[in-house]
Every structure is written in structure tokens, then in C-alpha cells.
């Protein structure tokens, strides 16, 4: 019996400590791939209103990309981000000899309510001891809990031709720290890209 309790506790502990961010869907253009190396150069754009957050997001994504990757905040001012013409971005991509563009943005925030069942703890030995330990029984009632889900979409385009080649959406549940959530999103996205066969080659250390 004790071993069963230990097993259940271990499973619950692992679930509780798991990452709060998961990939919920992804798509890859058939035949498309991104080979990590100097032949590819990617402009990373975080479409975030807050400039500090934008820089943090772009920097964290670039850390996980091998080859040449450039943060958009080094080329696009906050003013250009708010109202840049498509032709302006096209000129930057052409002049910078970029081969790919990676964009990430928050697409939705929703709430999800679920029921957490109550629990009962106590002694489950023979009936005699059960009776004697009756006072040691404790019951906690069930309750409803509301989670806030942040849906973030990441897309990758080739510059020439201008074409979507990979897209993925992550769900982050009740994020508390910006940097931790960004790291989880970046890890989830790059892992999924590899699983989809989109990223090839050796990751940069």
C-alpha cells in the first residue's frame, strides 16, 4: 500500500512541477526546412507593445537559434513598429540580406474554469485500527478554480519568396514571471520545430 501512495505522490508532483507552457498546434509547409548555419539569416520580431518586453522576448529567442539571427529592436525603432509600411520592412530585409523572418505575438487570453475534487486522508489499515484512528480523518471539500490561458503564435516566413513555412501556437497557463514564460515558449517552439522536421542541423550552444 505504501508503494502505491509513493507512486501516486510522485506522479502528482511531476505534473504539478511541469512547465506551464505547451504547444497546442503547429503546421509546417511540406518540404520546407530551416538548416542552421551561416547561409540563413533571420530577423526576429516580437510584436509586443512594451519595448522592454519586446527586447527580452527577441533576445531569448535568438539565444536558441543557430546561424545568423538579428533582433528587430536593433533595426526597427518603437515608432516604426507602431506604423511601419510594408515597404519599409521589405527594404530592411533586402538590405540586410535576410532569408527568414520569425514573428511572435499574443493572439488571445481566455479563462478556463475546472473543478478540483476534494480529498480525504486517514488510516486505511484493519477495521479495528480504522475505528481507533477515526479522529484522524480529514476531508477537504472540492472547489472550482479558474486558469488564465495566454495563447502566443509564432510564425516563420521565407523572404524570397514571401511565404509562410512554419506556424505554431503555445498556451501558457497562469504565467507569473515574464522571463520564465518566455523561456518556456522559446523552448516549446524550438523543440516542436525539430519534431516537425523544420529545424535541421546542430543547435548552437
Q: Mind explaining what this structure looks like?
A:
- With 205 residues, the protein is an alpha/beta fold.
- The chain has one domain (21-113, 149-200): Rossmann fold, CATH 3.40.50.
- Helix content is 33%, strand content 35%.
- The chain contains 6 helices and 10 strands.
- It has helices at 2-16, 51-63, 78-83, 86-95, 127-132, 178-195, and strands spanning 21-28, 34-35, 41-46, 68-71, 100-116, 119-121, 138-140, 143-158, 163-173, 199-200.
- The strands form 3 sheets. It has a 6-stranded mixed β-sheet with strand order 1-9-8-5-3-4, with helices on one face. The protein has a two-stranded parallel sheet with strand order 2-10. Strands 6-7 form a two-stranded antiparallel sheet.
- A hairpin with a 4-residue loop joins strand 8 (143-158) and strand 9 (163-173).
- Helix 2 (51-63) runs parallel beside helix 6.
Properties at a glance:
Rossmann fold, two-stranded parallel ribbon, disordered N terminus, 205 residues, alpha/beta, 6 helices, six-stranded mixed beta sheet, DUF4136 domain-containing protein, single chain
Count of β-strands: 10
Overall geometry: elongated
Number of H/I helices: 6
Whole-number tally of structural domains? 1
**Arrangement of strands in the largest sheet:** 1-9-8-5-3-4
Whole-number radius of gyration?
A: 24 Å
Structural class: alpha/beta
The overall pLDDT, averaged over residues, is: 79
Note poorly predicted spans.
1-18
N-to-C CA distance: 46 Å
Indicate the CATH topology. Rossmann fold
The main β sheet shows up as:
6 strands, mixed
Return the string of H and E elements.
Answer: HEEEHEHHEEHEEEHE
Broad CATH class: Alpha Beta
At CATH level 2, the architecture is 3-Layer(aba) Sandwich
Strand content: 35-45%
Protein name: DUF4136 domain-containing protein
Organism: Pontibacter ruber
Amino acid at each position: 500500500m505504501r508503494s502505491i501512495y509513493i507512486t501516486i505522490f510522485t506522479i502528482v508532483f511531476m505534473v504539478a512541477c511541469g512547465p506551464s507552457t505547451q504547444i497546442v498546434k503547429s503546421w509546417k509547409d511540406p518540404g520546407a526546412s530551416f538548416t542552421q548555419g551561416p547561409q540563413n539569416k533571420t530577423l526576429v520580431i516580437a510584436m509586443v507593445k512594451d519595448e522592454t518586453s519586446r527586447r527580452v522576448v527577441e533576445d531569448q529567442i535568438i539565444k536558441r537559434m543557430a546561424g545568423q539571427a538579428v533582433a528587430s529592436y536593433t533595426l526597427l525603432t518603437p515608432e516604426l513598429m507602431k506604423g511601419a509600411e510594408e515597404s519599409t520592412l521589405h527594404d530592411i530585409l533586402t538590405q540586410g540580406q535576410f532569408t527568414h523572418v520569425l514573428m511572435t505575438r499574443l493572439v488571445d487570453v481566455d479563462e478556463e474554469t475546472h473543478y478540483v475534487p476534494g480529498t480525504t486522508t486517514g488510516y486505511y489499515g484493519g477495521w479495528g485500527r480504522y475505528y481507533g484512528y477515526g479522529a484522524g480523518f480529514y476531508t477537504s471539500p472540492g472547489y472550482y478554480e479558474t486558469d488564465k490561458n495566454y495563447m502566443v503564435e509564432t510564425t516563420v516566413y521565407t523572404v524570397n519568396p514571401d511565404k509562410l513555412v512554419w506556424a505554431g501556437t503555445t498556451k501558457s497557463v497562469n504565467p507569473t514571471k515574464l522571463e520564465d514564460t518566455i523561456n518556456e515558449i522559446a523552448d516549446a517552439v524550438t523543440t516542436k520545430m525539430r519534431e516537425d522536421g523544420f529545424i535541421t542541423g546542430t543547435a548552437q550552444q
